[in-house]
Amino acid sequence: MNKVLVIGSGGREHALAWRMSLSTTVAQTFVAPGNAGTELEPLLTNVDLDVSDFSAVISFCQQNQITLVVVGPEQPLVDGMVDALSAAGIACFGPNQQAAQLEGSKAFAKDFLSRHNIPTAAYGEFTEVAPAIEFLSSQDMPIVIKADGLAAGKGVVIAETQPEAEDTVRDMLADNAFGEAGSRIIIEEFLQGEEASYIVIADGKNFIPMATSQDHKARDNGDLGPNTGGMGAYSPAPVVTPAIDQQVAEQVIQATLDGMAKDGMPFTGFLYAGLMIDSQGQAKVLEFNVRFGDPETQPIMTRLRSNLDELCLAAINGSLAKAHCLWDERYALGVVMAEEGYPMAYEKGHAIQGLGLVNEDIKVFHAGTRQSDGQVFTHGGRVLCVCALDDSLGEAQKKAYQAVKRISWGSEYYRTDIGFKAIR
């Protein structure tokens, strides 16, 4: 039986750890540092570890006979956690530091995509204001401007006008709006179409697709308002037809794994391709993540029926070709409940009411929460993700929102149209 440690404190980690704890081959699941939701789960144990201190993580794993570590967030992957734990003989699931550049640097990813002829938007790369603004003068609006490094899902601006685009360039390059992450920027064409998230588990050569999903990045109904880390998601995503599925599997995922292996940095872990699918059914890569998406993880894990620990260990051991995945056929839909003001300034510390009033068939995953004296408080911008399963997406949506209405803390904010494209 496996003993698993999940690294992270968000909704993604709550969902991964919860699914791990239900595995028939897992004896114990720890989460470091976790949140109030993982603390309240009967089968999970929170661990107060500084996850940026790799030697402390290694010591914990050795003392507790951990047989699998799963890294949830991107920062430890980009910082080399997999390299450090693997060197200590600990099975750690995720890409090594070199391969994690696919997310750690937008410039690295765009260069990789163009070098290996993987479909993506046309782009330019800049470290100075003047050439960036000159490049903008020859481009159509709207246009997408991205900070090169990690910016917690917020380093992407869609500029509607030339002045807005120029201001964004100055903000990032001259005024340091995203710190070190924005010292280099990518300016790329704005792709029209419908977004989808295509997430796989990879062992360097082979991959198994996770269930398809669609995230809602914009803060407000109708996909309006500023970009966020994601306001809700559902799975499966009907926009990924069998033909698109095949195209993405061959031209994006397999081409990426082959390209990374050819470049001497084989990719093991969750590989997430954020896609834009145009009206002709052609998919282009918007971005790579080198870990599971949030909030897509929550509905996808609600549907997964296979032992997640076995899949991760098969990937680490390079034996994914023999593995397969079982899924609940029903639709899953998750609504993110955020703090008013997110993704900009928001308050913390509001007491959350109504968590005990939610039906048993609803799963509430915690993200920005903490517990004190038996009461759960808000502790981040995205606070909860409320997930429901049903035979139709419309019914799953209805069930999720019925549950959302039972939970409150006085300054909660959520979209009321998650899943609208597929339902429409």
Automatic annotation (TrEMBL):
Family: Belongs to the GARS family.
Protein name: Phosphoribosylamine--glycine ligase
Gene Ontology molecular function: any one: phosphoribosylamine-glycine ligase activity
Entry cofactors: Mn(2+); Mg(2+)
Pathways involved: Purine metabolism; IMP biosynthesis via de novo pathway; N(1)-(5-phospho-D-ribosyl)glycinamide from 5-phospho-alpha-D-ribose 1-diphosphate: step 2/2
Catalytic activity: 5-phospho-beta-D-ribosylamine + glycine + ATP = N(1)-(5-phospho-beta-D-ribosyl)glycinamide + ADP + phosphate + H(+)
Pfam families: GARS_A, GARS_C, GARS_N
Keyword Ligase: yes
PANTHER family linked to this entry: PHOSPHORIBOSYLAMINE--GLYCINE LIGASE, PHOSPHORIBOSYLAMINE--GLYCINE LIGASE, CHLOROPLASTIC
Alphabetically ordered keywords of this record: ATP-binding, Ligase, Nucleotide-binding, Purine biosynthesis
InterPro entries registered for this protein in UniProt: ATP-grasp, ATP_grasp_subdomain_1, PreATP-grasp_dom_sf, PRibGlycinamid_synth_ATP-grasp, PRibGlycinamide_synth, PRibGlycinamide_synth_C-dom, PRibGlycinamide_synth_C_sf, PRibGlycinamide_synth_CS
EC number: 6.3.4.13
PROSITE patterns (alphabetical): ATP_GRASP (PS50975), GARS (PS00184)
Residue ranges constituting the ATP-grasp domain according to the UniProt record: 110-317
